Amino acid sequence: MASTYRPLEAIQLLRPTFRTARFPPPSRVAHIAPFSTTYSAHATHSSTTASPPPSPRPARRTVTVTNDTGAVRWSDLSLGEKAARTTQQSFNFVVIAVGVVLTGAVSYYIYTEILSPSSKTSHFNRAVTRIRAHPECISLLGGPGPQISAYGEPSFSRWARNRFIASTSETDRWGTEHMRFKFYVEGSRNQGVVNVHLTRRPGQEEWEYQSMVCDVKGEKRVVVEQKEEVGRAKGQGPKIFGARWW
C-alpha cells in the first residue's frame, strides 16, 4: 500500500542537515591563520646566545727614535715615546735644512765658477778660443787651431781630465779688480804657457783684457793682447781732471 507524500514532514527532516552544512563568510576565512606548533624565526627576534667578548689588542712594539714610522697615533704614545718621536722629527728637520743649505752652496759655486759669464772657467774658454784663432800661435804650436789642446796645472794622474787652473784675484787701492791666470797649450809641434791678465774697474760689469801672451820655449813671445798702462804698471794712480792727486 503506497504511503501518502507529506511536504511539511519532509522539510522538518531536512532542516538539521542545512544547519550543519553552513560555511562561514569569505571575509572571516581570510583572517583565520592555521594553527602550527613550529615557531618561525624573524630578523627582529632577540637572540638568547651571548656574543663573545672582543679579543684584546696585540701588544705593539715600543716606539723609539730608530724604529718610529709614524704609524702609531700621537694620542696613543706614552710620554717617553712622544719624546722619542719629537727627537726623531727634530733630527730629520736638521738633516733637511743642512741638505738645503749644501744644495744652495753647491749651486752657487757651480754658477759662479762655471756657468756665470764672469767665472774663471768662462774666461778660460774665451782665452783658449783666441789662442786657437791667432795665426802666430797656430804657427808655433802646430795646427790647425781646433787641434790645439789647453789644460790647467800638470797632474800626477795620467787619467785626470779636468786640471786645476792657477789663478789669483785682487783689488787695488783704486777699487779695480784684477784677475790673473795661466794655462798650458799643446799643438802638434810644441807646447806653450799662456798668461792672462783681466781687469774690471768700479761700476763696470764686464772684464777687460789687459794682457794675454803665449810663451813657447826657445821661441819669441807671442802677444795676443796688450793694454796695460805704463803709468799704472809703475804704481802711479789714475789722473783726475788731467792731474794725479797721489
Can you tell me the CATH architecture of one domain? Roll
Major β-sheet profile: 6 strands, antiparallel
* Amino- and carboxy-terminal Cα gap: 185 Å
Low-confidence spans: pLDDT under 50, at least 5 residues? 230-234
Write the CATH homologous superfamily of one domain: Mitochondrial import inner membrane translocase subunit Tim21
Radius of gyration: 55 Å
**Structural class by SSE content:** alpha+beta
**Count of individual beta strands:** 8
Task: Describe what this molecule looks like in 3D.
The chain is 33% helix and 19% strand. It has 246 residues and is of the alpha+beta class. Among the domains are: 42 residues; 110 residues, Roll (Nuclear Transport Factor 2, Chain: A), CATH 3.10.450.320. Strands 1, 2, 3, 4, 5 and 6 form a six-stranded antiparallel β-sheet that branches. It has a two-stranded antiparallel ribbon with strand order 7-8. The chain is elongated, with a radius of gyration of 55 Å. The chain starts with 6 loop residues before the first helix and ends with a strand. About 2% of the residues have low confidence. Keywords: Membrane, Mitochondrion, Mitochondrion inner membrane, Protein transport, Transit peptide, Translocation, Transmembrane, Transmembrane helix, Transport. Belongs to the TIM21 family. It holds the Pfam family TIM21. InterPro entries: Tim21, Tim21_IMS_sf. It is found in: Mitochondrion inner membrane.
